[in-house]
Amino acid sequence: MTRKSTLVVSVLFIIFLVFFLSREISPKQFNKNDLDSNISLDQPIWKVNQTDSMVSYNISANRAFQNRTDKKFILKKVIIEELLDSQVNSSIKSDNALMDLDLKNLILSEKVHLNLSLDGKELDLFTNEVIFDLMQKEINSNQKIKLKMHLFDLESEGFLIKNSEHKNKEIFLTKAVFSQIEREETVYGKADLIIHKFPSDVLILKGSAEVKFNSSTLIGDEIQFNYKTKTIIKSKNSKFIKS
């Protein structure tokens, strides 16, 4: 490696330390990039620790490219793991990502797969683009998404996870529709906003809320629905309509 390349890598590493307080980068190999990038990294790993948080992150990629003129990395085949007490409780995978050191975020794109695993429950979310804000600890997207769990499927026009480092993940899903298709009974629901406090068994439907059973439909301003027991917990300004 040339002295110039070593200097560039050292400067980038120092910047990463300044922005994220505690940081380690472990690339297996540094290469000159023939394109517009200054350097390329083979199989790099970033370890992100913050002094005010119990959560840490591992960010890995098959390859990374750093532009000459800014503090951005272009990543290929990316995996972000969130660790709490050394246990992985969520991960995000994508084909591509842009990691911005100034904005302290990652934009993940192409075949994005978010997985949550808590208290024996699994949640999988699929979309085309996700923004992960490491400083605000938020994950969001305005793209159409598909969410899958053991007991229901859901589609929406976007989502937001606030304070993503918390063990219980509060997921906000806009213009969302869910379904439970089983032999005994089929249940559908929709609302302007559906809130799921994963890993709880409750969905909170707000705004033009509707839950449809085989023989009746409940409509209201807000409906709290237990998808495990298929029961209405409570509702606001609601009424049943016979099918």
How would you explain this protein's 3D organization?
With 243 residues, the protein is mostly beta strands. The chain has two domains: 1-118, lipopolysaccharide transport protein A fold (Sandwich); 144-243, Lipopolysaccharide (LPS) transport protein A like domain (lipopolysaccharide transport protein A fold, Sandwich), CATH 2.60.450. Helices cover 7% and strands 66% of the residues. It has one helix and 19 strands. The chain has one helix at 3-20; strands at 22-25, 29-32, 37-42, 45-49, 55-67, 72-84, 87-100, 105-118, 121-133, 138-141, 145-148, 153-156, 159-162, 169-181, 186-198, 202-212, 216-226, 231-236, 239-242. The protein has a six-stranded antiparallel beta barrel with strand order 9-10-13-14-12-11. The chain is elongated. Residues 1-35 have low confidence and may be disordered.
**Secondary structural class:** mainly beta
How many structural domains can be distinguished in the coordinates?
A: 2
Low-confidence stretches: 1-35
The SSE order reads HEEEEEEEEEEEEEEEEEEE
What's the gyration radius in Å?
Answer: 21 Å
Q: What share of the residues does DSSP label as strand, in percent?
A: over 45%
Biggest sheet layout: 6 strands, antiparallel, barrel
CATH topology heading of the largest domain: lipopolysaccharide transport protein A fold
What count of helical segments does DSSP give? 1
